[in-house]
Amino acid sequence: MSLLTIENLRVEYRRGGKRIPAVRNVSFSLAPGESLGIAGESGSGKSTVALSLLRLLPESATVTADTLCFEGQEILSLAPGPLRALRGGPVGIVFQDPFSALNPVLTVGEQVEEVLELHGEGRSRARVLSLFGQVRLPDPAGVYGAYPHQLSGGQRQRACLAIAMAGRPKLLIADEPTTALDVTVQRDILNLLDDVRRELKMALLLVTHNVGLLSERTDRLAILYAGEMVEIGPTATVLGTPSHPYTQGLLKSLPRLSHTERRLPALPGQPPDPRDIPVGCPFRPRCPSAFAPCATEDPVLRPMKNPSVHAACHLYGVTP
Asked: Which of 106, 111, 27, 108 lies closest to 69 in space, CA to CA?
């Protein structure tokens, strides 16, 4: 049984009277306790997908889907009351910048208590301290009375995770949770997310631009390019034997200890402007394997030799 089901998710932004597509034809499901990573370059639509699940996009965005369902409940048709109950309750979220996510005029303890009260538990210092211990915050009592500016970046992100966990989520969305942190702290936060997921048996949707961070922390991996999903499958398979040329290019650009070259290979060019998506495959202008069909038709996801992996590429099923 799926906890989350998304079929043909589409997001458009209104700018100057025009509709600009940001996400197109994105479909996936998430089982209870499963972890899914969403990766791709900046502007690929990763965060747009994540935020659309809780209808947190600005008013200029139009979100449609054949299905956008959490535990059998259609999210796009939820009234404001049930939607507020869903946010921070069954579905928690950790944002990219913990400093802007926290209220600067309330203590961290007060902010966690607000969530407890909102979801019917009532304010409880003991429960807050328990949550702080669960996310491994040093000196939970000291953090309880501290303001966000008095904490380090890593401590603030742990506090945000405690806030997300206060609603006892079945699904946690982590949108680039380490981007604003020191490299030395990033791994600790990701390890913590993985540990908490396993302890609470909750599902995790982890969004990041760094494919390398996902290798040991997700069960499946989805790769987005220009707002479309170009590959999805078990993380070990996608990273070990990538099918789509874009996924292959991303992995080649990762730094490794075995690299002896002075410069890492990089993908040529830039992602397309969403206001001017090229006809055919949007990756064609940057693809070293492009051939005639790529210029006329946008490929659709199809199963590979390993049927657990799907990729959207004309190289499979069409003879060059």
From this structure: 27
Name every residue whose Cβ is closer than 8 Å to that of residue 75 and which is 6 or more positions away in sequence.
53, 54, 55, 68, 69, 83, 86
Write down the pTM of the prediction: 0.92
First to last CA, the chain: 39
Run of H or E including 231: strand 228-234
Q: How far is CA 272 from CA 21, 168, 227, 283, 305, in A?
A: 12, 40, 10, 8, 29
CA distance 23 to 9: 7
Around Cβ 80, how many Cβ atoms within 10 Å?
A: 8
- The bridge status of strand 302-303 relative to strand 310-311 is antiparallel
Q: What is the rounded distance in angstroms from the CA atom of residue 221 to the CA atom of residue 46?
A: 12
Where is 171: in which H helix or E strand?
A: strand 171-175
Interatomic CA distance for residues 221 and 141, integer angstroms: 38
| pLDDT for 295 | 94
Q: Inter-axis angle of helices 108-118 and 153-165, to 10 degrees?
A: 20
CB 6 within 8 A of CB 36: no
Question: CA-CA-CA-CA torsion for 240, 245, 248, 254, nearest 10 degrees?
Answer: -160
Please report which helix (H) or strand (E) contains residue 71, including its range. none
pLDDT averages per 10-residue partition of the chain, 320 residues: 94 91 95 95 93 95 96 95 93 92 96 90 91 94 96 94 94 91 85 90 92 86 96 96 94 69 76 91 94 93 94 75
Closest CA to 91 of 4, 171, 163: 171
**Distance between CA atoms of 270 and 126, rounded to whole angstroms?**
51
